[in-house]
Amino acid sequence: MMAREQHSVLDAGDTGDNVDLRRPAASERPARRRRRVLVPLLVALLLAQMAAVMVTTAVRQTPTIDEPVYVATATDYLREHRVRYNPEHPPLGKLVIMAGVAVADPHYDASYRGDQGQVGRHLLYESGNDPWRLMFWARLPVIVLTLLFALVAFAFARDLTGTVGGLVALALYTFSPDLIAHGSLATLDVPAAGFVPTSAWLLWRARHRPRLCLPLAGAALGAAVATKMSALPAIPVLVLLAGLSAWHASGSGRTDRRRAARHAVAGAAVVAVASVAVVWAAYLAVDPRLRLAYAGPVPAVHGLRGWLTGLLPLPRAYRDGMLVQFGLEAQPWQGFLFGHLYSGSRWYYLPAALLVKTPLGLLLLGLAGAVAVVAARRLRPAAPYLLLPPAVLLAAAMTGSRDFGTRYALFVPMFLAVGSACVPALRRRWARPLAAALVLFVAVSSLRTFPYYLPYSNEAFGGPSRTHLRLHDSNVDWGQDLGRLADRLDGRYRGERIWLVYKGSGVPAYYGIHAPDPRKAPLGRVHGLLVVSDSSVAKARGKLAELIRSSRPIDEVGHSITVYRR
User: Fold this and answer.
1) What is the pLDDT of residues 74-121, one digit of tens each?
2) What is the mean pLDDT of residues 338-343?
3) Is 272 a residue whose pLDDT tops 90?
4) pLDDT by residue (tens digit) across 358-416?
5) CA-CA distance, 412 to 548, in Å (whole number)?
6) In angstroms, rounded to a whole number, what is the distance separating the alpha carbons of residues 432 and 521?
């Protein structure tokens, strides 16, 4: 397969006109030189803005619910080289976190016995470590990876539509509150999501450079699957797109269909094999001695799911983790959506949550871009690469039993940002001014929510201060504001009696908050300040609900904790 020079769908880049192969006129050369300087400068400014707000967010937030587990598991990888904790998630994302943990060099007691949550709290609060320092270093590699994925969005959009489209995609990505919020945490959601558009971009480039890009696309797909198992539904989609790219690259689809079909099968096989190899490599990086079986309890899963899991050509620990995930899916979970508390799951939860938490400008541009990529003949070849992966992943995520947040669908704003680049590529006078106005709208909306990105909701739903009325858990309150609460209580309410209902993994006493649980005291004895995490407010029943009803809200912290007066 001959490699050919990579061009955007529009060939000439920004305007969609045919390429002019003649040398530029002398009058055009200064403009081109200015452009060569201006574009890297804009890219650097957008990345610097995102880096600054993510670092600022990271140093101000206390550990969220999942972070201590991942940090403790990464520490165990570093010190003990074993798959002992958190088997339900593959190791690659935690190996990324491990890079920062290695710099922090925390004290770690490998003999401590407890579940993964207890081990995380012991590492952060009971082992002589500084949790602020350890969490910063654990979060820093994820911040760097999030910024690298921003460059992927820029490159993907530029390859599709030209430089202007690339800058639009980059701006929308770097101002996305969800990507800033979760890219600032030592969690697995942004890494798993970001490798999917990376693979799709490389598959698009493989239409012209298959020998280089197909193996790299397979590696990116394997990285997604080696970070979170929720990426597994992307495998058949991206493998099929690999076949499509190899078919196109062969250049013989019209004259020799058999030859083109062989190229397509070979391209799909390369991506599939490379992805499996990356998963194995991730486990071997944890335990080079090949002790790949998980030592903890694994639920028995029968029927088709159990049989198919056993057939996967993946490490035993990975397959055990899948069985653990199936066990978690079978448990009863509670959800909260638009003020309604329910048991089980709702298929429309994720679309509704994304509608609330995605900036309006990104929603409008992304949807318009999806229409444009299908309707415009020049853009149509890119439609499968832009639309199929997020559609399949979102459909799979909508069948899950845990309605806990848009973090399960962070690939959506990533693909929306890239798809938005198709709007300024349209040959319409209004296209670029409209795109510029909506990008500015997104930027303003994002900057207004600083530094409270986790509880962000767009203007149509009242902004961050109203998110807790419609959503819960990692959409709003994931335990991130315990440090801010300590500062608020010390600054405004020193000496007052405090009662606390906190949802999170932090230890309130470490931050100087010594407050009993009001649910364990007679109702008549609960006087003073009642402080409740908003996720607990959303799910309040019985005694806690009565306490809240008979109290008066007087303050809030980080749009995630409410302070009541009794």
Assistant:
1) 999 999 999 899 999 999 999 999 999 999 999 999 999 999 999 999
2) 94
3) yes
4) 999 999 999 999 999 999 999 999 999 999 999 999 999 999 888 889 999 999 999 99
5) 36
6) 61
User: Residue 509 gets which letter from DSSP?
Assistant: G
Can you list the positions of beta strands (E) in 127-198? none
Q: List Cβ<8 Å contacts ≥24 apart for 543-546.
A: 543/518, 543/519, 544/501, 544/518, 544/519
HSE toward the beta carbon, residue 529, CA cutoff 13 A? 23
What is the Cα–Cα distance from 190 to 224, expressed in whole angstroms?
A: 10
Asked if 195 and 231 count as a contact pair (C-beta separation under 8 A), the reply is: yes
Least confident of 11-25, 169-183, 385-399: 11-25
Query: Which residue in this structure is represented by tokens 């990086």?
Result: 285
- Two tokens at 519? 């649910």
Annotate 154-165 with b (16+ C-beta within 10 A) or e (fewer): bbbbbbbbbbbb
Quote the tokens at residue 198.
């990376």
- Among left, alpha and beta (phi > 0; psi -120 to 50; other), residue 105 is left
Please provide residue 525's backbone torsions phi and psi, each rounded to the nearest 5 degrees: -95, -5
Residue 8's pLDDT band, with cuts at 50, 70 and 90, is low
| CB contact at 8 A, 145 and 191 | yes
Q: Which of 215, 222, 268 is closest to 241 using CA atoms?
A: 268
- How many Cβ atoms are within 10 Å of 539's Cβ, its own excluded? 17
- Output the 3-class SS for 210-249: HHHHHHHHHHHHHHHHCCCHHHCCHHHHHHHHHHHHHHHH
Instruction: Output the pTM of the full model.
Output: 0.93
DSSP-derived pairing of the beta strands 334-337 and 340-343: antiparallel
Q: Are 529 and 563 in contact (CB under 8 A)?
A: yes
What six digits make up the tokens of 58? 């990271």
